[in-house]
């Protein structure tokens, strides 16, 4: 056996870039990208990506250098998921909702040599670069103007600070401080194949990009759609009426999104029962069971999973059992709200006791920290050996910082982020459990629960809610009415002691409620003596 060693024939490096070559051959005439009145085939997309990779090399981008992208889900954003790694550079997708200061830190920390900038974000990026220290070399800027492409006209945007337009260099080719999560080609390959298998994605699906590609690389589906020859329906902003229109117009089969997207769709004034089933994959925060039930009642088939930027996508999923189909809708939704079991591409997932390091009891009650191990995990954090060592422990586990339980049937359920657990009078309160009850109240549109400092209890649950606005409300409920509703359904120590009504809860661009903002408000309320 010692003579049976790896050799070039059986140890080819794993990469998702080959998916695009295959798609051009297998699905060459099929649509790859659709956006407004622009569409490309897989053969055209393959050619455009090769041209852009060549252009990057011509611009002096060298292997291992960082190329950043600040753009929404437009065609160029999708193409760059292939073009940048094709050139040998490192791809850095950046959230378009960041402030200039944070963006400036990101660009400096990553030492970006080139930045592709959507025309709606040009002023933001220019402000971020203006914050660079003196004598610091600025990255080159390329302007993405999809309106110029779709209209066939020249852009009216100012280009004095930009090297060129995206289409211009494409033509040349024919001739908190943020964490720098680093993923290898091998990890992305494993995650992409794993995602396709776990979600049972067929050949040539029609995929609607409701999930920002800059969020954990679109959960690996930019490369996944190339692997199966899917059609990518691109659009700029998540809007329920537009989503319903695009689903009907293009016969969408698959889409992804955070639970807030499900809530938007199921509460939209434009809500309509779908004329065909649409597979929707949700993750990002524990989805309330009432939201899952409402979403499935209008024709969506919801799949639920769990992952992090550090895992490249979803690595734990609620693998569905056929016998559960016989259960009532509300019970099915409750089971589906659990995160589930490790996908086939993840070696192992568990919940460990923070004191002993041993697996917790599988009783659905004993909490611990969620840990993972597998080939799709991050290599570590760029220029942050301390941060890497804190989560990548010598015992062979990646520590997520999430608190969860394991049920008797082996299914994992996330209870909260460790920093979000509310400790009131010595009792641990899981905010998602309280939020799920609040979401079941007919008038509630959004809900979030955070800790409010309390002199006697240490902390008490403080609920922030927004109410529905679609004309269904005959009378606005009072704070006491909602608190009593919770009291009838929860242990009394878990019932919110304070209820705050907001027009809309603060959220990130990916739909996660910004609880740190709500915690500041709750803390300020306690300082001024608001009960």
Automatic annotation (TrEMBL):
GO molecular function annotations of the record: ligase activity
Name the UniProt record assigns to this protein: AMP-dependent synthetase/ligase domain-containing protein
Sequence ranges assigned to domain AMP-dependent synthetase/ligase in this UniProt record: 21-382
Gene3D superfamilies: 3.30.300.30, N-terminal domain of ligase-like (3.40.50.12780)
Family: Belongs to the ATP-dependent AMP-binding enzyme family.
Keyword Ligase: yes
Pfam families, per database record: AMP-binding, AMP-binding_C
AMP-binding enzyme C-terminal domain segment(s): 433-512
RNA-binding listed as a keyword: no
Keywords: Ligase
Taxonomic lineage from the root: Eukaryota, Viridiplantae, Streptophyta, Embryophyta, Tracheophyta
